[in-house]
């Protein structure tokens, strides 16, 4: 049972709602209006949480403008306060919020851009795991009979992004790669977000390779993933796809037996 | 790894991400660095590895902002577990937290919110500190807050409340001289009332920082704890008087907004060191 505390309940009720009454018992030494002082707390909460969100979404911010982003963050945090004091975890729910936020309906690519940015933050702080190298895997790769039943565990810093929009080009244009006016927003794009050394990278993928990785990430064996990819893309090249995975340190475990990786 | 506690005339600064490479390469003339516990609670990656590199070169102080010790709700056991893991890994010379609350109903407000000072809140804060010290297996330093409102439900002043908490729980105190100054101005008090009420032996660390200035509804000064400016001259004066009273204590310069180059913060810490050395040379403390 949570003990009742009318003052703390009163703070929680009023901190995000300027129109609501102040908590009980609040006094000032000089008899001045306590609202002016309580507003310091209101401001601290909104500004600090908005800054925490803003840090992780620079491209989203640039796409809508700082003023719009701050107003959107204000609406978001009223519904989604952090559920822990670890603010690097705060913002996971923002992309879905944006998808359902009526004022951004004209920017249908925005939720996927926000997902990509969130994944970059998560990749930066993801658990350390040694990636298997080509040398580690040489004896497995030399035994093609066993490849189809093999399952992989992808590196914890990896996430796959498949979008109906040109989110990778849009993100890249904000890093000084390509001009934003040249981006064809309606072009479907996919990317891997991964940590390579200390740097988080956004790696564009063909739709066939993205589909192949998605199947692997779902825990299915290499053979199934390759069949699905080849069915949609006749010239799908398994060797090339595996080389890309290995080159970017994407494989944390390799299970030739076909058992799901531990 | 350095494990010895820094000397009493030690000075440090809050560790900022942008300064980390310089701190590792240049090893500035500081005795310790302080980090916010919650910023280090990530699964892995470069930030944690760099902190380990700093730890190989300097003692660390770990400063929590999320335990909500003054909260009516029970302590968050998962958060305590994370703290225990962090302290085990980085072996800080101190762990400190605030006399404040920040969580309610499962939500975290990311601000240090005030509580009334009375027998009910005293019992609650002591229970929470007992539990924290037991779980972490080490003494906690409790920091006096900046507050902007007071409560009709308070029956004791902040100095007596803190002294009582220290006596009952055996915790130490982190005296934030800037917070003492801010709260005194904001509530029309003398900051010395707080400082003089603290048990001298309990004070294990001092914080210094800068504030912003506004006006309240009556036009009186309303200082706001921003950590966004250099330490004010009035706070330096109060710091020197505090040192004459307490003797030297490890002192930290905090800056969390408008962060200047590392050298500027090091210079501010060196100014604190001069005051500490003066206090060591002319002790008036009992």
List the helices and strands and how they pair.
The complex is a heterodimer of chains A (262) and B (286).
Chain A lengths: L5 H9 L11 E2 L6 H23 L1 H7 L1 H14 L14 H6 L10 H16 L8 H8 L9 E4 L4 E5 L3 H7 L15 E8 L2 E7 L1 H11 L4 H11 L5 H10 L3 E5 L7
Chain B lengths: L10 E4 L5 H7 L5 E5 L9 H12 L2 E4 L13 H14 L3 E5 L2 E4 L2 E7 L5 H18 L3 E4 L6 E2 L6 H12 L2 E5 H10 L4 H7 L5 E6 L2 E5 L5 E5 L7 H14 L4 E3 L8 H20 L5
Helix pairs in contact in B: 1-2, 4-5, 5-7, 6-7, 8-9
What would you say this structure looks like, in words?
The complex is a heterodimer of chains A (262) and B (286). Chain A is 47% helix and 12% strand. Chain A is an alpha+beta fold and 262 residues long. Chain A has 2 domains: 1-107, no CATH class; 127-262, Outer Surface Protein A, domain 3, CATH 3.90.930. In chain A, helix 2 (34-56) crosses helix 4, helix 3 (58-64) packs across helix 4 and helix 3 (58-64) packs antiparallel against helix 6. The two termini of chain A are 39 Å apart. The relative contact order of chain A is 0.10. The mean pLDDT of chain A is 93. Chain B has an 8-stranded parallel β-barrel with strand order 1-2-3-4-7-9-10-13, surrounded by 4 helices. In chain B, strands 5-6 form a two-stranded antiparallel ribbon. Chain B is built from 9 helices and 13 strands. Chain B has helices at residues 20-26, 46-57, 77-90, 119-136, 158-169, 177-186, 191-197, 233-246, 262-281, and strands at residues 11-14, 32-36, 60-63, 94-98, 101-104, 107-113, 140-143, 150-151, 172-176, 203-208, 211-215, 221-225, 251-253. In chain B, helix 5 runs parallel beside helix 7 and helix 8 packs parallel to helix 9 (262-281). In chain B, strand 11 (211-215) and strand 12 (221-225) form a beta hairpin. Chains A and B meet through helix 1, strand 1 and helix 2 of A and helix 2, helix 3, strand 5, strand 6 and strand 8 of B.
């Amino acid at each position: 049972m949570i003990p009742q505390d009318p003052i703390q309940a009163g703070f929680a009720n009023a901190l995000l709602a300027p129109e609501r009454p102040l908590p009980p018992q609040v006094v000032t030494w000089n008899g001045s209006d306590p609202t002016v002082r309580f507003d310091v707390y209101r401001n601290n909460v909104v500004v600090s949480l908005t800054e925490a969100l803003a840090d992780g979404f620079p491209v989203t911010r640039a796409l809508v403008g700082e003023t719009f982003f701050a107003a959107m963050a204000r609406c978001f945090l009223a519904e989604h306060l952090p559920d822990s004091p670890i603010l690097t975890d705060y913002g996971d729910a923002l992309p879905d919020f944006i998808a359902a936020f009526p004022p951004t309906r004209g920017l249908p690519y925005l939720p996927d851009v926000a997902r990509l940015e969130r994944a970059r933050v998560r990749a930066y702080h993801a658990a350390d795991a040694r990636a298997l190298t080509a040398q580690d895997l040489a004896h497995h790769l030399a035994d093609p009979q066993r490849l189809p039943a093999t399952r992989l565990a992808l590196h914890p810093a990896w996430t796959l992004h498949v979008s109906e929009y040109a989110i990778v080009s849009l993100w890249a244009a904000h890093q000084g790669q390509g001009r934003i006016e040249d981006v064809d927003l309606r072009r479907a794009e996919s990317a891997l977000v991964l940590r390579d050394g200390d740097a988080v990278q956004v790696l564009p993928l063909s739709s066939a390779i993205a589909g192949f990785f998605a199947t692997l990430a779902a825990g299915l064996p290499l053979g199934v993933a390759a069949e699905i990819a080849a069915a949609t893309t006749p010239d799908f090249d398994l060797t090339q796809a595996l080389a890309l995975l290995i080159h970017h340190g994407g494989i944390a475990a390799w299970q030739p037996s076909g058992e799901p990786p531990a | 790894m350095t494990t010895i506690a820094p000397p009493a005339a030690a000075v440090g600064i809050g560790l900022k991400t942008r300064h980390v490479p310089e701190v590792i390469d240049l090893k500035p003339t500081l005795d310790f660095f302080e980090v916010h516990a919650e910023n280090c609670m990530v699964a892995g990656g470069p930030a944690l590895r760099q902190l380990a590199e700093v730890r190989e070169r300097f003692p660390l102080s770990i400063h929590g902002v999320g335990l909500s010790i003054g909260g009516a709700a029970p302590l968050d056991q998962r958060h305590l577990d994370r703290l225990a893991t962090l302290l085990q890994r980085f072996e800080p010379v101190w762990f400190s937290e605030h006399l404040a609350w920040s969580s309610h109903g499962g939500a975290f407000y990311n601000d240090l919110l005030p509580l009334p000072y009375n027998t009910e809140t005293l019992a609650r804060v002591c229970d929470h500190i007992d539990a924290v010290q037991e779980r972490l297996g080490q003494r906690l330093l409790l920091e006096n807050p900046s507050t902007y409102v007071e409560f009709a439900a308070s029956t004791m002043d902040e100095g007596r409340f803190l002294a009582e908490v220290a006596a009952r729980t055996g915790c130490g105190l982190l005296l934030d001289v800037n917070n003492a100054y801010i709260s005194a101005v904001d509530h029309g008090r003398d900051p010395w009332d707080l400082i003089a009420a603290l048990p001298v032996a309990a004070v294990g660390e001092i914080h210094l920082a800068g504030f912003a200035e506004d006006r309240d509804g009556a036009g009186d000064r309303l200082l706001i704890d921003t950590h966004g400016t250099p330490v004010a001259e009035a706070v330096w004066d109060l710091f020197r008087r505090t040192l004459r009273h307490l003797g030297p204590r490890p002192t930290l310069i905090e800056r969390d907004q408008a962060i200047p180059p590392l050298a500027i913060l090091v210079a501010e810490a060196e100014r604190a060191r001069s005051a500490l050395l003066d206090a060591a040379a002319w002790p008036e403390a009992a």
